[in-house]
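Hello forum,

I keep getting stuck at the same step: I have a sequence, I want structure tokens, and every attempt I make locally crashes halfway through. Rather than fight my setup again tonight, could one of you with a working pipeline run this one for me? It's a single chain of 465 residues.
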Amino acid sequence: MLEMNTLGGSAAAAEPVPGSVIRSSNGVLSATLTVQDVPTKAAGLDIASGLLTYNGLYSGPTLRVSPGDLLRLNVRNRLVEPTNMHFHGLHVSPKGRQDNVFVVIDPMDDFEYDVEIPADQTGGLYWYHPHLHGLVGKQLYGGLAGLIVVEGGEAVRPEIAPLRHRLLNLRYLLITDVAIAPQLVSYDSAEPSNAVHLVNGRHQPTLAMAPGETQFWQVCNSSTDAYYNLALPGGRLQIVEVDGGEVWESWFPETVPLPPGKRFGILVTAPTTPGLRTLRSGGYNQGPYGQWPAVALANVEVSDPSNRSVTAPLEMGTAAAFIAQKPVRQRILDMGEAQTDENPMFWFDDVPYEKITMKDVISVEANTVEDWVIRNGTTASMGTTQESHPYHQHVNDFAVIERGTYDPVTGTVLTRVRTAPRSRAASQTRSTLIRAIGFEFEPNSIAFLAAPFITATSPSMKTKA
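Reply #2:
Ran it on my machine without issues. Output:
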């Protein structure tokens, strides 16, 4: 197994960058992504085998687009298994050649995506990755992911635009045979306790800041399973963007929770005295398959001269109107998990994920709001494995309006607390409105969602115009 002192990184490591950047021009971003298993570099090591790459790189290129652009990607599959692409968080069509997770790109085949980004798409951080059911975890862990930046949003606010901006892509891997020919440990054998966590592909890189300086960090957890709780001792963190969406009320957390797929825009203010600090992630016990230890993610070198601190307003916008809109109906959805042959199996409403078909699709009316009750149960029928789960919904926004616990045997709600959404996203501790990864469900917990369905449709929801 990998030894820490053999890794690239340390306090002397270069500033991490999120890979190559491709920008749109004249309203179109046109690029080719070749998916292949080739030797490449990660964590400062030349990995002989196991990594999956876009264009030969462990992390795919960062795609920078503007609202109203056309994102045209030619995906060339040179793996020995099928793949596809999901544009995580974008409010785009899930049909045809857009964000269609039912597309199958077979080995040696090519497929062109033509994703029409709406003119009103919120500026912020999004990302892309494979979403072929049955292979998502393996391919994402192997390295197939990249960032998408939609220009605008909080990044261009007058108080934020002059600041230094950073994109931080968090993920993990396990490597064996380091001294001979480093190879990636298989996804099924990857244990959280042995994971090596990377920032933009580097192990414990160094981020430079001046005393008291405020920087704007857009952070993505693009890992398959890892849970992060970010903290910078002696510094100050202010949340101003969540899952690519603007917040209408900012806040100052001690730690920032990032379940898989989560993104935050954070105003990070350095300590006022020079010195070497550590950007850390606190531990998180997800359950039997995810006991994530506390780890150091990066060094933060604070050195003179001092720089100015910036604070965004607490009130940053107006709450989404649909939160107060009367719902047309309520639905109850149950998620479950069980262990089979030492591997977890997941389902919604007693249907295993791998057996979900179009007959299981929920039909909703366009331009309406529904209340959805999501329950993470542990009964014999829903699965007896007690594990926390993030909730993710493609294309359409939603807001968490209540949370609590319930008895999965009787269905009785035991506790119920009204929440106050304050952004277009949600985390495991803050209830908010989201476009992509949702929030964290602990075992036997329940959440009440307000879900608006606007024009575009989701692969798991069919919207009737």
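Residues 1-6, 8-14, 425-439, 455-465 have pLDDT under 50 and may be disordered. If your local run keeps crashing, start a new thread with the error log.
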